[in-house]
Design goal:
There is one protein chain. The protein contains five helices and eleven strands. The chain is of the alpha+beta class. The protein has one domain (46-212): Immunoglobulin-like. The strands form two sheets. Strands 2, 4, 7, 8, 10 and 11 form a six-stranded mixed beta sheet that branches. A five-stranded antiparallel beta sheet has the order 1-3-9-5-6. A hairpin with a 6-residue loop joins β5 (123-129) and β6 (136-138). The radius of gyration is 27 Å and the shape is globular.
């Protein structure tokens, strides 16, 4: 075979061939072959908890003017936390019991503690909107009085009869003092008048116990 014939053969065999680098670039541009980075894993009990019926307002809640019920997925004995250990997660569901939209419903976490102001509980609170939200740090209000607007954030509208599920995550620092203390999650209108108790009570609340275990 002459030199000219060999050159023509190489040119013909290369027609229509696309370099590998261009193939890879095309796949990435169309989304084909791209790596799946995924996102935060949903809580394993989310679907079952979300499917539960919303409770009706109790007599005392109606007297207080509550419009929202709050339920959680924890047992009556509460949430155990080990100092310096893994965080504990809690699912909380808000239910609008009315036939009208409730606007700007924010959430706050308040820990009742007789030593409030004297010792730091050394607890970290985070929350996210399930199932695919990002964890965000929330303020933990340590007090022994009713003050739901302090630390309230994550305001969202709640449609008539609608539900909203929020996942909380609690972590105790290595030096966190042991003991069981009541924790209340408040749902309150972000624009409520802080001097008007009636407006502050127009949302709802739910309680559970946080138990920081003694060190081994």
């Amino acid at each position: 075979m002459t030199r000219q014939k060999r050159q023509r053969k190489r040119q013909q065999s290369g027609r229509g061939a696309v370099p590998a680098a261009l193939v890879a670039a095309a796949l990435l541009a169309t989304g084909c072959g791209a790596a799946d980075t995924g996102g935060p894993a949903p809580h394993p009990g989310l679907d079952a908890f979300h499917a539960q019926d919303c409770p009706e307002l109790t007599g005392s809640e109606k007297e207080n003017g509550n419009l929202i019920t709050l339920t959680h997925d924890q047992p009556e004995e509460g949430v155990p936390l080990r100092p310096g250990g893994d965080p504990a997660t809690v699912l909380v569901k808000l239910c609008n019991t009315t036939d009208r939209p409730l606007t700007g419903i924010a959430l706050s976490a308040q820990l009742e503690w007789s030593d409030a102001g004297e010792r730091d509980p050394l607890l970290t609170v985070e929350h996210r909107e399930t199932p695919d939200g990002q964890w965000r740090t929330a303020d933990l209000v340590v007090a022994n009085d009713y003050d739901p607007l302090r630390g309230a954030d994550a305001a969202r509208d709640l449609a008539p009869g609608a539900t909203r599920v929020v996942e909380y995550r609690f972590t105790a620092a290595e030096e966190a003092p042991s003991g069981a203390r009541p924790l209340t999650i408040h749902a309150v209108r972000a624009g409520a008048d802080p001097d008007d108790a009636g407006e502050q009570r127009g949302g709802g609340l739910g309680g559970l116990r946080l138990s920081v275990l003694p060190k081994d």
